[in-house]
Design goal:
The protein is mainly α. It has one domain. Helices cover 59% and strands 2% of the residues. The protein contains ten helices and two strands, in the order H-H-H-H-H-H-H-H-E-E-H-H. It has a two-stranded antiparallel sheet with strand order 1-2. Keywords: Membrane, Transmembrane, Transmembrane helix.
């Protein structure tokens, strides 16, 4: 997907936010806040709640990219390449004490890669690919498990029915209101009732389904490079502070 934002006259996605550069900027800021909180301030759940915007926005932007790219294999290749590049920095940033034990704890770019591969298989009616990707991401140790596939399917199938897409999006995150234990450090506790921090993903809903039209222009490689770069920075700070 090129650096300009997509306009509604380009092709199939209608009535959702095509201001993808703005959305991706929001997502990487959210992700950075989340990762700083996870690495250095685990006692402050606000970092993790604000970080819940990132994943659904990334999934949405990947779905838009799949629909508009002129070369899906190159698009997937970039995701896969930066997933591989980012993996050592991911481990050093969050699990430096047990590097060998976390070699197969895959970073989020792997989740996005497998999820997008599954939804592309669904779109092209390559059912074997869809099923294989779904099984791999569900049974192996990927961040968010199959949530990425489900989100991308919602965005793809409801691309012309944003109201239905918004309802299904809310339903995907509804369990967060019922599965958290009161007193969980990442939950919002109200009396004897706990709301899981994944409910923070609902904050992304208006950004995805309403139009912003900022005309923001950012080189596409910035978004790819930011991921390993910010992980390397967190790993470096870990090393310097002796965490």
């Amino acid at each position: 997907m090129n650096t300009k934002n997509i306009t509604v006259t380009d092709k199939p996605l209608l009535n959702t936010n095509l201001d993808t550069n703005f959305l991706k900027l929001v997502a990487i800021i959210s992700m950075f806040i989340d990762h700083v909180g996870a690495a250095f301030f685990p006692e402050y759940p606000i970092f993790r709640w604000l970080g819940r915007l990132a994943f659904p926005i990334f999934c949405y932007c990947m779905t838009v990219g799949m629909l508009y790219t002129s070369n899906i294999r190159r698009y997937l290749g970039r995701l896969g390449l930066f997933a591989v590049i980012s993996q050592p920095f991911w481990i050093l940033a969050f699990n430096p004490q047990d590097i060998l034990g976390n070699l197969t704890n895959w970073n989020i770019f792997f989740t996005l890669f497998i999820s997008l591969l599954a939804v592309w298989g669904f779109k092209e009616k390559k059912w074997w690919l869809f099923i294989l990707a779904f099984l791999v991401i569900s049974l192996w140790n990927f961040d968010y498990s199959s949530t990425g596939i489900l989100l991308m399917l919602v965005f793809y199938l409801c691309r012309k029915k944003p109201s239905l897409g918004a309802v299904l999006y809310v339903l995907l995150y509804l369990p967060a209101f019922f599965t958290a234990s009161p007193g969980d450090p990442l939950s919002l506790t109200i009396g004897n009732y706990g709301i899981g921090f994944e409910a923070g993903a609902l904050l992304a809903l208006p950004l995805i389904f309403l139009h912003t039209n900022t005309s923001l222009r950012i080189p596409k490689w910035f978004f790819y490079a930011f991921y390993p770069a910010h992980l390397a920075l967190i790993a470096l700070v870990h090393f310097l502070l002796g965490f």
